[in-house]
Automatic annotation (TrEMBL):
Pathway involvement of the protein, from the record: Glycan biosynthesis; sucrose biosynthesis; sucrose from D-fructose 6-phosphate and UDP-alpha-D-glucose: step 2/2
Matches recorded under SUPFAM superfamilies: HAD-like, NTF2-like
Catalytic activity: sucrose 6(F)-phosphate + H2O = sucrose + phosphate
Protein name, UniProt field: Sucrose-phosphatase
Record Pfam families: S6PP, S6PP_C
CDD domains: HAD_SPP
Enzyme class label: hydrolase
Extent of the signal sequence: none
Taxonomic placement: Eukaryota, Viridiplantae, Streptophyta, Embryophyta, Tracheophyta
Cofactors that this protein relies on: Mg(2+)
Domain named Sucrose phosphatase-like: residues: 9-260
EC number(s) on file: 3.1.3.24
Native species: Flemingia macrophylla
Residue ranges constituting the Sucrose-phosphatase C-terminal domain according to the UniProt record: 282-409
Length: 418
């Protein structure tokens, strides 16, 4: 990762389904809590890695369905694919490594002889992964027999069974754990090994993550039986692995605090937004301001002149805001617009999500900040790239001096608040 010039303060490596993403939480509350925490306190100097069994196709589908922030690295297809950044640039070195002693055609031929195996969708069949469904009571017998057959054909493979139904055949050097080990070695070679790494999971294909030396680990409270059994047999005495009492993303936040890896107080858990002056940073300011506007529009704060005065105090009256449409506005007009939209999203599934919040310090008290801002209303979403200049002169608070917004590609371009 070229974004960080030195070692990441914290690298979080998390499974998605039922770990970071709670499919039983229609409000996505825990995910929004994690997102706000990460962007406010970690994005600037840490790394976020998603490690999922999903193929790129299903991973992108999940990103459309759930309010997930963009990771620095995505490990997909049960550790057989590694990509970087928003553009998902593949790691060619990992591809070359996995191609040793792997022949997908032979795997397909031999697995076709097992009637118990039902092929998953074509999107899940990847260059270094062949995936099936198999009934739980048949899984162990099929796994043992298939392993012997493929070994007899000269292949070094790994068979992973997870979720009580999914069976994946991979190169022996593949898997979530090996992909993470590869990344850690790569960072170490570059002199950028993360100071701390926290791995997070809920199912059997996450067990390898917890076996990497030196990492902290959290099994969320809703972890499946197969992972809990692995823990009981292999890591129960390991103080660096926690079985959280909280579900999904909330369990990850709990683990950050449990292991003293940094702040685990999400801005969404702070009743009086903006009062955390001691830890104030450009990232926290961006997150807090978006939360204030969200709460105002959801009528979750009092419609008062005190609130309006607080907003006025953070805006340079003569500053300019450039709307995504290209129209220029004096920033003091923003206050008048806020007055008119109080409670317009009351009772609705409305959230404001900011991500990729990165700040560059221009001088001792001025920052250039770039981030993506999304307004999510039910299944609709529209977003823009925001470039802002913030100042912190003779005050405990930041002042918004200039804002320039540009529509994000593939974003809805409907009504947009300044």
């Amino acid at each position: 990762m070229d974004r960080l010039k030195s070692s990441a303060r914290l690298m979080i490596v998390s499974d998605l389904d039922h770990t970071l993403v709670d499919h039983h939480d229609p409000e996505n509350s825990s995910l929004f809590r994690f997102n706000a925490l990460w962007e406010a306190h970690y994005r600037q100097d840490s790394l976020l890695v998603f490690s999922t069994g999903r193929s790129p196709t299903l991973y992108k589908q999940l990103r459309k369905e759930k309010p997930m922030i963009t990771p620095d690295i995505a490990i997909m297809s049960v550790g057989t694919e590694i990509t970087y950044g928003k553009s998902m640039v593949p790691d060619d070195g990992w591809v070359q490594f996995l191609s040793q002693k792997w022949n997908k055609d032979i795997v397909l031929k031999e697995t076709s002889k097992f009637p118990e195996l039902k092929r998953q969708a074509e999107t899940e069949q990847r260059p270094h992964k062949v995936s099936f469904y198999v009934e739980k009571e048949k899984a162990q017998r099929v796994t043992e027999a298939l392993s012997k057959v493929l070994a007899g054909r000269g292949l070094d493979v790994k068979i992973i069974y997870s979720g009580g139904i999914d069976l994946d055949v991979l190169p022996k050097g593949a898997g979530k754990g090996q992909a993470l080990a590869y990344l850690l070695k790569k960072f170490e070679t570059e002199g950028k090994k993360p100071t701390n790494t926290l791995v997070c999971g809920d199912s059997g294909n996450d067990a390898e993550l917890f076996s990497i030396p030196g990492v902290y680990g959290v099994m969320v409270s809703n972890a499946q039986e197969e992972l809990l059994q692995w823990y009981a047999e292999n890591a129960k005495s390991n103080p660096k692995i926690l079985h959280a009492s909280e579900r999904c993303a909330s369990g990850i936040i709990q683990a950050i605090g449990h292991f003293n890896l940094g702040s685990n107080l999400s801005p969404r858990d702070v009743a009086d937004i903006g009062k955390d002056v001691e830890n104030l940073s450009p990232g926290l300011e961006i997150v807090n301001f978006s939360l204030l506007v969200e709460k105002w529009r959801r009528a979750e704060v009092e419609n008062s002149e005190m609130f309006i005065a607080g907003v006025k105090a953070t805006i340079l009256p003569s500053g300019v805001l450039i709307h995504p449409s290209g129209a220029d506005h004096i920033m003091k007009e923003y206050v008048n617009i806020l007055r008119k939209v109080y409670g317009d999203k009351q009772g609705k599934q409305f959230r404001i999500l900011v991500e990729n919040v990165l700040a560059t310090q221009l001088d001792s008290d001025t920052w250039l900040i770039k981030f993506d801002k999304w307004e999510l209303s039910g299944e609709e979403r529209q977003g823009c790239v925001v470039t802002a200049i913030l100042s912190k002169k003779d005050s405990d608070w930041f002042t918004w001096m200039h804002v320039h917004e540009t529509w994000l590609e593939h974003s809805g371009q409907g009504e947009w608040l300044l």
